[in-house]
Amino acid sequence: AQTVTQSQPEMSVQEAETVTLSCTYDTSESDYYLFWYKQPPSRQMILVIRQEAYKQQNATENRFSVNFQKAAKSFSLKISDSQLGDAAMYFCAYRSLLRFGNEKLTFGTGTRLTIIP
Amino acid sequence: DTGVSQNPRHKITKRGQNVTFRCDPISEHNRLYWYRQTLGQGPEFLTYFQNEAQLEKSRLLSDRFSAERPKGSFSTLEIQRTEQGDSAMYLCASSSGQGDNSPLHFGNGTRLTVT
Question: 3-class DSSP state for residue B85?
């Protein structure tokens, strides 16, 4: 079974600075997807960024980028120019590409990000 | 696109009572998922539907839990004889199912408190 580990329960960053959230995972599969989801307080979870494991190029979405190290099974999220609206719980998630059971996401325990004005 | 809707937002019930939650996915999304999230944890997969067919169930889904999606549109999750350990946020998500990487759209969840 796959596992996802987020070793930072809480992080804080000064507004406009850069912060990196770490995520490691364990799998025996070679093809899979990785995601970062954001869950603001009392609001729904939304997708921030996703990475296909077969792609060597790191995904980027505006101020959000990932550092995907497949051999190390590491998938960190970098947020540049942090904004107050970035404050949320951030979850790293894994999705298998096996034909059966490929629909479910396996989530880490999350990192609570605080933005300091 | 009005998003995934879940009702009720909060439910407080006494131990031993039955509860039912409803999820309305984004229209035309044929895939629907239920997750459970306890305090300080990430969401855990419970079950998944493609149209009206329930294709996968987690071992977390004990016999007291049942989910349905009768016409391939909205879904219900029922918990019978609730226990205090059932207290959690129950999240519903849907996706279009187009391709392997169609993103999940989550609802706001139903928070269940069992006293």
Answer: helix
CB contact under 8 A, B44 and A93: no
Count Cα neighbours of B65 within 13 Å in the Cβ-side half-sphere. Answer: 18
Residue A55 sits at the chain B interface (C-beta within 8 Å)? no
pLDDT tens profile A1-13: 789 999 999 999 9
pLDDT reported for residue B56: 86
Which residue has 């439910």 as its token pair? B11
- From CA A24, how far away is CA A74, in angstroms rounded? 4
Mutate to test the interface with A, among B32, B100, B110 (most CBs of A within 10 A): B100
Reported as half-sphere exposure (CB side, CA atoms, 13 A), residue B88 has a value of 22
Element housing B76 (H / E)? strand B75-79
Q: Which residue on chain B is closest to A99 by alpha carbon?
A: B100
Please check the confidence at residue A100 and state whether its pLDDT lies above 60. Answer: no
Quickly state the pLDDT bin for B10 (edges 50, 70, 90).
Answer: very high
> Using one digit for the tens of pLDDT, what is the confidence trace for A36-64?
999 998 788 999 999 999 888 999 999 99
**CA dihedral sign of residues B36, A97, B94, A74:** positive
Residue-wise DSSP of A24-93: EEE-S-SSEEEEEEEE-TTS--EEEEEEETT--SPPEETTEEEEEETTTTEEEEEE-S--GGG-EEEEEE
B12: which 2 tokens?
A: 């407080």
- Chain A residues in contact with B43 (beta carbon < 8 A): 45, 91, 105, 107
How many other β-carbons are positioned within 10 Å of the β-carbon of residue A43?
Answer: 12
